[in-house]
Amino acid sequence: MNSLVRKMLKTILRRGGILVQLLVIFGLLTLYLFAKETSYKFDDSLLLALFILASLWIGYVHITVFLKNYFRKNAFKPEDAHQFLLFWRYGWLGAGILFALISLSGSMGTLGISAAFVGMILGWSLQAPVTGIAAWIMVMVKRPFSIGDRIIVSGITGDVMDITMTHIVLNQVGGTVAGEERSGRGVLIPNATLFNPTIHNYTYETKFVLDEVVVLTTFRSNFNLAKQILLSAAEEATQGIIQETGTKPYTRVEISPEHGIRIRIRFQTNATDRQRISSEITEKIIEEFGKHYNQVEFSFPHTEVIYRPKYHDQGEPSTPA
């Protein structure tokens, strides 16, 4: 019999919980207003404190249920969600105790002014931590990047290794070396700074990005052969990527009047393996140019002196006087 009653009470509270909670708040507010308008010996300040506590508690319960469900699905790590919910719980507890103490004065005006003053002081003193947590929530909601993405933030390029409530941990790309290879040096970016700089994500929609290798050939080189060498080198190095994306390498050509013909071979490459693939393509191009040195050659700053004999109009070579 007792178990049946408990089940019935749980069912009533679960289905009509919101209605019951609203009735409690309405009843406390009614008692407070009644105490203010009558001469009965009610402690209206105590009623106001109970009303504030009940309102905060009900708000806390419903918002916490929503946050728990959301964080279970979207948090990068369960311990981060647990840590945030602890801060959330103690924050509400502190706010409830503070507002309850203030409300014992019995004046709604005093309560409003005190709440605004306390909020201003807390907002000023906890600006960086609160901004950091807000940025962490923004990252979870908007997903501008995830763990494993290669990003540029605050002028630093790196692969995201971890996302905590206070910092983003990057494995820096470059830094100790030229180019875009992991240096192994960890960089901690405070979350509070994420609202200010522009964030570049190499892998926002896909793990591939467009890259190019530039080759400058002389005007007397066999252009078609040079172009074919570049295309073959890029296709061989990115064969797997071509099968996955369906995009083949292509060329773009420019004429540099003072230097030669600039050929750009452009291709899809893995964002986190960009340096290796471009280096592999460059090596293949150098090897093929070496095999066909009599038909294609690199253009580079140099001076050539070409001697030609001078002829008269009759077509005979001139002889020195």
Which helices and strands occur, and which strands form pairs?
Blueprint: H1 2-15, H2 17-37, H3 44-74, H4 78-103, H5 108-125, H6 127-142, E1 150-153, E2 156-163, E3 167-173, E4 182-190, E5 200-201, E6 208-217, H7 223-237, H8 239-245, E7 250-256, E8 260-270, H9 274-291
Antiparallel strand pairs: 1-2, 1-5, 2-3, 3-4, 6-8, 7-8
Helix pairs in contact: 2-3, 3-4, 7-9
Give a verbal description of the structure:
This protein has helices spanning 2-15, 17-37, 44-74, 78-103, 108-125, 127-142, 223-237, 239-245, 274-291, and strands at 150-153, 156-163, 167-173, 182-190, 200-201, 208-217, 250-256, 260-270. It has 321 residues and is α+β, with helices and mostly antiparallel strands. It has three domains: 2-125, no CATH class; 144-201, Roll (SH3 type barrels); 208-291, Alpha-Beta Plaits (2-Layer Sandwich). The strands form two sheets. It has a five-stranded antiparallel sheet with strand order 4-3-2-1-5, with no helix packed on it. It has a three-stranded antiparallel sheet with strand order 6-8-7. A hairpin with a 3-residue loop joins strand 7 and strand 8 (260-270). It is elongated. The mean pLDDT is 77.
What is the total tally of β strands?
8
The description of the largest β-sheet is: 5 strands, antiparallel
Overall pLDDT, averaged? 77
In the sheet with the most strands, the strands line up as: 4-3-2-1-5
Q: What portion of residues belong to β-strands?
A: 15-25%
**Element order, helices and strands?**
HHHHHHEEEEEEHHEEH
Radius of gyration: 36 Å
Structural class computed from helices and strand pairing: alpha+beta
| Large-scale geometry | elongated
